[in-house]
Design brief:
By secondary structure, the chain is an alpha/beta fold. It has one domain (9-227). It contains 9 helices and 9 strands. The strands form 4 sheets. Strands 7-8-9 form a 3-stranded mixed β-sheet. The protein has a two-stranded parallel sheet with strand order 1-6. Strands 2-3 form a two-stranded antiparallel sheet. The longest helix is centred in the middle third of the chain and has 15 residues, at 71-85. It starts with 8 loop residues before the first helix and ends with a strand.
Length: 228
């Protein structure tokens, strides 16, 4: 998967479902995607928070793009999250984690986003091992999409690959099966939790989940999926 900044709970369900997770950091950056932005709950509405980048372009790879970051940018982002969730039940134990992630001294958006994911995974005690396609499998760059995934699976000695439910539009089980790889798709089940007294808004950043749910309850949410 491409590294996203503070992704939604389904991303972490995928991490929890596998033994090895590969950050696809040497593929093209997607503008207006989720690599450098996500949604939080602010005043009862879903609100975008964005990490500014330097000359971001879909003609560049994710790991070629740097953050336009300074202390003021990070302070403003932290302040926005603090104002949004300062009355949330688990604010005190979660905000220190969020501050540490945002203040990380990392200049590359791929590594910065990946660090947000790894840090939250560690907090939730997920034992999955993380890798980067640019480091572990640079020779596969440029391969056809499905063929690259199959190549990486075989390089790691694995015969099962799990993709997001959206991958059903891109990949067929038969093609993977013909290459001795069992392909499954993960589907997040419907669930809700209390967001102050507002109507529930699903699929916000994991920040929202952590602010309103205990660690144990969040770990329980990681299991609310189906493999299809």
């Amino acid at each position: 998967m491409q590294p996203y900044i503070f992704p939604y709970i389904g991303y972490f369900q995928l991490i929890n479902a596998v033994d090895k997770f590969i950050f696809y950091d040497d593929v093209n950056f997607i503008k207006r995607g989720w690599i450098n932005r996500n949604r939080i709950l602010l005043n009862g509405k879903d609100t975008l928070v964005t990490i500014p980048l330097i000359k971001a372009s879909q003609n560049k790879l994710i790991n070629e793009i740097s953050l336009f970051s300074d202390e003021k940018m990070k302070e403003n982002l932290i302040s926005k999250i603090e104002n949004a969730y300062k009355k949330a039940p688990y604010y005190d134990e979660v905000i220190s984690l969020i501050r540490k992630i945002i203040n990380a001294d990392i200049s590359n958006i791929g590594n910065y986003a990946a660090n947000s994911i790894i840090s939250v995974s560690n907090y939730l005690e997920i034992n999955t091992k993380f890798y980067f396609s640019s480091i572990q499998s640079p020779e596969s760059k440029g391969m056809y999409k499905a063929d690259r995934l199959i190549h990486i699976c075989k390089k790691f000695g694995e015969d099962q690959y799990i993709n997001t439910i959206g991958g059903q539009e891109l990949y067929t089980k038969k093609y993977f099966d013909n290459n001795q790889i069992d392909l499954s798709f993960i589907k997040t089940l419907d669930f809700e939790y209390k967001q102050f007294n507002h109507q529930f808004i699903p699929f916000l950043s994991v920040i929202d989940v952590l602010m309103f749910n205990s660690k144990n309850n969040t770990k329980e949410m990681l299991t609310k999926y189906q493999l299809v």
